[in-house]
Amino acid sequence: MSFTSPILKQYRQKLVTARKAVQVVKSGDWIDYGAFCTAPRTLDEALAARVDELEHVNVRALAFPGKAKVAMASAKGNSMTYNNWHFSSGDRNNHDHHNCYYIPFTYNEGPGHYGRNIKTDVCMVQTTPMDHQGNFNFGIGNSFQRAIIDNAKTVIVEVNTTLPNCLGGAGESVHISEVNYVVETENQPILTIGSPKISDVDRKIADLIVEEIEDGSCIQLGIGGMPNAVGKLIAESDLKDLGVHSEMLVDAYLEMFEAGRVSNLKKNLDPGKFVYTFALGSQRLYDFINNNPSCASYPADYTNKLSNIASNDKTISINNAIEVDLYGQVSSESSGYRQITGTGGQFDFAYGAYHSKGGKSFICLSSTVTDKEGKVHSRIRPVFDPGSIVTLPRTITHYVVTEYGKVCLKGKSTWERAEALISIAHPDFRDQLIKEAEKMRIWVHRNQTSSLVKAA
């Protein structure tokens, strides 16, 4: 590209330091950060440095990679309030210290909130370097970035050469003509994570799920050890012609592809393509998706649109949970008043997968959890503690799986649900769960002669 190029001229005119770029922020402004690894690092630090100059500035982020500097700065007073659509471990820690507030939403509705329900004064997003046509790519964090930019008064891009260039799909880039300021950085490597450790319990649960998957199924995996265990077992299986349509792309998909399990050729929607809205994994995964035409990055209102999920036959949705109650409600985002993650796309894929032809939705969790004091608790509960959020209402939950088995809750009455869920609870807790179910009036007399009671 020539130095006299009009595109390059625009770039150079808009190139400023981070310190100068954040001067555009005024008291009372709403600031939106890029999602996941497209969150600005240099601009975040520069904005946090203005904590004593501003009042009532609000920042929205989505799973910030680490701990946002503005969140830490907000602890010093009331000048900045940090809000988040979905918690990373750093966001969770900030929430524990009253420096972060959660924004409830379902992922498919994320883009629609901008311009309809909320405003953005300044958008700050990390991107790849500008290409010859003047485009900055959002890399592994498409999400609802375009919707933010389309509704923002000011757009600042923070360039990082370590972001992979993720082809569309749609909504994967912004043009220099739409950008107000460009900030170059020291190109700090983006966050990479290894595959979660897979326990014996994870593997038992994965075995129960994999036996439900057929050739030609379309797979969605949530984050965590159990969904990744399913991916690894699929890679080791003889399944074939699987497809990928998922909000998140993780290393398990790469393992499935390299093992010859994924072709994407049987999909009704976007055949031949890995469809996703963000990626989170190893550098090997990022290298795989970089400029790869078989991978298509889309906004969340495409990947998580209920009709799009349902359009592929035999869609299989696999997600974690924190707890399940005896009514079949699923809590996957909070424990009591402690917000841990977020709703994300769990509702979208649980609903969409069930409405796919031959589709199935699985919620998986270990039967017990051990607290910091070493006490063991059942994760199948009579009812949730006050403050625990229902991520999936009982009307949506399809399969629930623990290491003790899997049960389908669709079409079942309250007593049938209770009996089914107690049957996959840890044996040490079944008697007490039966007593609680009786108090809740969801246990009938004929259950007393069931094989469940005999085994409890």
From TrEMBL:
It is an enzyme of class 2 (transferase). Keywords: Cytoplasm, Fatty acid metabolism, Lipid metabolism, Transferase. One of its GO terms (cellular component) is cytoplasm. The active site is at E247 (5-glutamyl coenzyme a thioester intermediate). The keyword Lipid metabolism applies. SUPFAM superfamilies: NagB/RpiA/CoA transferase-like (SSF100950). It holds the Pfam family AcetylCoA_hyd_C. CoA binds at G222, I223, G224, G225, M226, I322, G345. Pathway: Lipid metabolism; butanoate metabolism. Residues 281-437 form the Acetyl-CoA hydrolase/transferase C-terminal domain. GO terms for biological process: acetate metabolic process; acetyl-CoA metabolic process; butyrate metabolic process. Its main location: cytoplasm. The keyword Transferase applies. Its EC number is 2.8.3.-. It is found in: Cytoplasm. Signal peptide: none annotated. PANTHER family: ACETYL-COA HYDROLASE (PTHR21432:SF20), ACETYL-COA HYDROLASE-RELATED (PTHR21432). Coenzyme A-transferase that converts butyrate to butyryl-CoA. This is Probable butyrate:acetyl-CoA coenzyme A-transferase. It comes from Desulforapulum autotrophicum (strain ATCC 43914 / DSM 3382 / VKM B-1955 / HRM2) (Desulfobacterium autotrophicum). The lineage of its organism: Bacteria, Pseudomonadati, Thermodesulfobacteriota, Desulfobacteria, Desulfobacterales.
